């Protein structure tokens, strides 16, 4: 079984989340307030310690006021064609 945490696609998604948060002018704490969660949750997502499921990706995108496809495209572009689950 291939790992997805720390894979190139996962790292690209983390980078896209950080870039989107910064482009929105938000700190991790401010994004956490929008998500109604702890800042440490946002930190774990951004650092790659925790994976994001598809529903969470939609919620994150809404909180960042961007299209979820934008975040997904970053992960898709960086995921190896032969990556296995």
Automatic annotation (TrEMBL):
One Pfam family per UniProt: HTH_3
Molecular function in Gene Ontology: DNA binding
Family annotation (InterPro entries): Cro/C1-type_HTH, Lambda_DNA-bd_dom_sf
Domain HTH cro/C1-type: 17-71
Listed Gene3D superfamilies: lambda repressor-like DNA-binding domains (1.10.260.40)
Membrane-crossing residue ranges in chain numbering: none
Domain of life: Bacteria
Protein name as it appears in the record: HTH cro/C1-type domain-containing protein
Taxonomic lineage: Bacteria, Pseudomonadati, Pseudomonadota, Alphaproteobacteria, Rhodobacterales
């Amino acid at each position: 079984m291939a790992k997805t945490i720390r894979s190139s696609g996962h790292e690209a998604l983390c980078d896209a989340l950080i870039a989107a948060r910064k482009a929105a002018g938000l700190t991790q704490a401010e994004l956490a307030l929008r998500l109604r969660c702890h800042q440490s949750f946002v930190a774990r997502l951004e650092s790659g310690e925790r994976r994001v499921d598809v529903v969470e990706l939609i919620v994150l995108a809404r909180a960042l006021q961007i299209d979820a496809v934008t975040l997904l495209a970053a992960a898709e572009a960086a995921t190896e064609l032969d990556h296995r689950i």
